[in-house]
Fold this sequence. Notes:
The complex is a heterodimer of chains A (114) and B (114).
Chain A: E1 3-5, E2 10-14, E3 19-21, E4 24-26, E5 32-39, E6 46-52, E7 60-61, E8 64-69, E9 74-79, E10 88-96, E11 103-104, E12 108-113
Parallel strand pairs in A: 2-12
Antiparallel strand pairs in A: 1-4, 3-9, 5-6, 5-10, 7-8, 8-9, 10-11, 10-12
Chain B: E1 4-7, E2 10-13, E3 19-25, E4 31-38, E5 42-51, E6 54-57, E7 64-66, E8 76-78, E9 87-94, E10 104-105, E11 109-113
Parallel strand pairs in B: 2-11
Antiparallel strand pairs in B: 1-3, 3-8, 4-5, 4-9, 5-6, 7-8, 9-10, 9-11
Amino acid sequence: AQTVTQSQPEMSVQEAETVTLSCTYDTSENNYYLFWYKQPPSRQMILVIRQEAYKQQNATENRFSVNFQKAAKSFSLKISDSQLGDTAMYFCAFSGAGSYQLTFGKGTKLSVIP
Amino acid sequence: NAGVTQTPKFQVLKTGQSMTLQCAQDMNHEYMSWYRQDPGMGLRLIHYSVGAGITDQGEVPNGYNVSRSTTEDFPLRLLSAAPSQTSVYFCASMRRGASYNEQFFGPGTRLTVL
């Protein structure tokens, strides 16, 4: 079974600064997908960024980028130029390539301070 | 195109009552699933379905029933609600063969069992 670990229950960052959220995972699969979801107070689950395990290049989406270290089974999220609207819970998630199931970490609560 | 819809948004039950959480999608997705979100626990898979007439258990299935008579609908039934089922429930759907195994989430149902 896969496990996803987010070791930072809460973090804070000053507006316009950069913050990195950590995620590690454990799997015996060779091909899989990794995701970061944002959950604002509205509780809607919003996909922020995704990564395929066999792609070496780290994914980027505007101010969001990941540092994917396959050998270390690490998948951190970097948020640049943090904005007040980035305040939310962030969940790291894993899906095997042949699976329909998502395995989530416990989440990191990010607060952006004006 | 409404995406994934869930009703109700909020519900309060008494211990022992039964109810059905509704989930519908209009994207003709084969795969649908139910997750529950508890504080500090992330999202955990309750049940899933890979197509009409086919369902299977996830990580935390006890106390819940599902059926999938149509591609569009995937209701979650609580036969005898317990306080331990107080949670936020999310329905998700995915097209078979989707790139990145991307899943679409509904807005969630907050359930309180007294």
